[in-house]
Amino acid sequence: MAKEKQNRMRKIPSVEHVLTLPDIASLTNEAPRHIVVDAVRKKLDEYRARLKEIKGEALEIKESDLAQEIVRDVKNFLLPSLTRAINGIGVILHTGLGRAPLSPAAKEALIEVAEFYSNLAIDKEAGKRAERYRHVEKLLCIITGAEASVVVNNNAAATLLILDTLTKGKEVIVSRGHLVEIGGSFRIPDIMAKSGAIMVEVGTTNRTHLKDYKNAISPNTGALLRVHTSNYKIVGFVAEVPLADLVQLGQEHKLLVVDDLGSGALIDLSKYGLPKEPTVQDSITEGADVICFSGDKLIGGPQAGIIVGKKKYIDLIKKNPLTRAMRCCKLTYAALEATLRLFLDEATLLKNNVTLELITKDIESIKQEASNFANRLKDEYGSKLVVSVKEDRSEVGGGSLATESLPTIVVSIKPKAIKTQELALRLRLYRVPIFGRVAEDQYLLDFRTIRKDEGPIIIEALKHCL
After folding, report:
1. Full residue range of the structural domain in which residue 48 is found
2. Confidence category of residue 402, pLDDT binned at 50, 70, 90
3. Coil, strand or helix: which one is 91?
4. pLDDT: which is higher, 51 or 388
5. CA distance 456 to 48
6. So what's the pLDDT on residue 51?
7. Model confidence, pTM
8. Backbone dihedral region of 203: left (phi > 0), alpha (psi from -120 to 50 degrees) or beta?
């Protein structure tokens, strides 16, 4: 048996032989030779592993097939891993697809500072080193009414930094209904433990009263923490303490009040027919000492954790050594500043902020775009696809506007010659990856999240896939 296996192994060509095959030899003109050699070795190792698993049957090795597989692997490696994608899933802030698409203004700002040097950490007037926070601090203070601000790489980092700076070794009182977990295994109890704060849970999952906080206060209490449940809601027999009451209790006992808003909102979304979300301005007005929120969710900017609040606390946070470890690069500041400037004029905000424009998009315009696309599909691929237009629901996603969905229109595609899942795979593997969802053996494209200029790309992709 061992001899038979050895004989089969000898049929696997050597690396040197494979490198002489015409397709592989020409591949070295497109890729560095060591990349090609490595791909050849890996592919031959795969064949050896398959041979070891086969019992009593031969593994036919066609050199042409082997060469094609290696060429495909090398060419895939040479392509950028991070690329533009088309979101036909209907989740506006889809974490897997990069969350918020940036505004044209943010894009222009990114290009400007990416290509050239910038004044990231230098004072133009004095010609000396300066804080990078200043690029957005004044904007944040004007928009929110806060005294000061600091920006780090995401809101998880912001929460950790606040607790580490201001409550290490002290008790932090938090409602059991606020012990959230978000994607990527971020849990409030874990963040508290890592920060050195001592978590004190009060109330129950569905009902927490002011007396619960009051009764838990001890000489070692450092802060009262409110965490907005951005990604879920508790309904029914519930009770939650208003932030203003927590602030009053904090003032009576000289305790810090921290408000983690999660997704964060800088405008009142209820004006646009959406559920009421607590705004950063509300938290400032009601007297929270420190507030943190995300930059890449309801604000529609780059990934960032934004901390605003009273200057004396923000100054301490800036001096924490962890702040440097969590700081943002020039690209984040460029995109964030451009995004925040849009909020200075709410009259034009929805036209220029891509995320908010998608959230408030008119259902009639969605229907028109979907119908036009479906008609073109029927004209070009009627013999290969069954196409229809349907009503459906979109999600905001990204842990924002929990349990709420938005009316939308989807184009349903049912291929006649291949399986629906196969079509979905081929579209994901297209040069511009296209992501839709499969439901009831239909491929659905949600036109709330598909841009007007993306229809032709999808048409071309379907031509390639079919």
Report:
1. 2-78
2. low
3. strand
4. 388
5. 44
6. 77
7. 0.90
8. left
The verdict on 146 and 30 lying in the same domain is: no
What CA–CA distances, in Å, run from 239 to 23, 118, 169? 69, 50, 29
Let me know if residue 294 belongs to a domain.
Answer: yes
DSSP states along 120-150: TTB-TTT-SB--TTHHHHHHHHHHH--SEEE
* Contact yes or no for 333/135 (Cβ under 8 A): yes
User: Phi-psi region for residue 145, left (φ > 0), alpha (ψ -120 to 50) or beta?
Assistant: left
Let me know whether 62 and 122 are in one domain: no
In a domain, 354, yes or no: no
How much is the average pLDDT of 52-68?
A: 76
Which tokens go with 237?
A: 């027999």
> Dihedral through CA 22, CA 25, CA 28, CA 30, nearest 10?
-10
Percent of the chain with pLDDT over 90: 79
Q: 458: closest CA among 83, 86, 82?
A: 86
- Quick: pLDDT tens for 8-48: 667 788 999 999 999 999 998 999 999 999 999 999 999 88
Residue 458 · residue 445 · CB < 8 Å:
yes
Domain edge (last residue) among 314, 349, 384: 349
The pair of three-digit structure tokens given for residue 3, joined into one six-digit string: 């001899």
Say yes or no: 91 and 41 in one domain: no
Residue 305's H or E segment, with its range, is strand 305-309
CA pair distance 206, 179, nearest whole angstrom: 12
CATH number at residue 376: 3.90.1150.180
